[in-house]
Amino acid sequence: MSTPGPTAQEPTFESAIAELEAIVTRMESGELLLERSLEDYKRGSELIKFCQAQLVSAQQQVQLLEEGMLRPLNNSQQEPSGES
Predict the structure, then answer these.
(1) In terms of CATH, what superfamily is 13-69?
(2) Whole-model pTM?
(3) Is the distance from CB of 44 to CB of 23 less than 8 angstroms?
């Protein structure tokens, strides 16, 4: 049984970054026609928004984990009971 993954319309963070890198490389080459440059720019903007949303979501998840799990240890938790 496999876990459901991202749909064809929704890339993973990693695939979005890879696509952005490819777009930047094409645009930096200076060999694209104006129309293709505009298409790539539009797609790059969409990918950036997607990646930013993914990063915000991940940051919120980390904050929730930190609030619920990462707390300073008090002395009773650091030493076994009955020992000084």
Answers:
(1) Exonuclease VII, small subunit (1.10.287.1040)
(2) 0.66
(3) yes
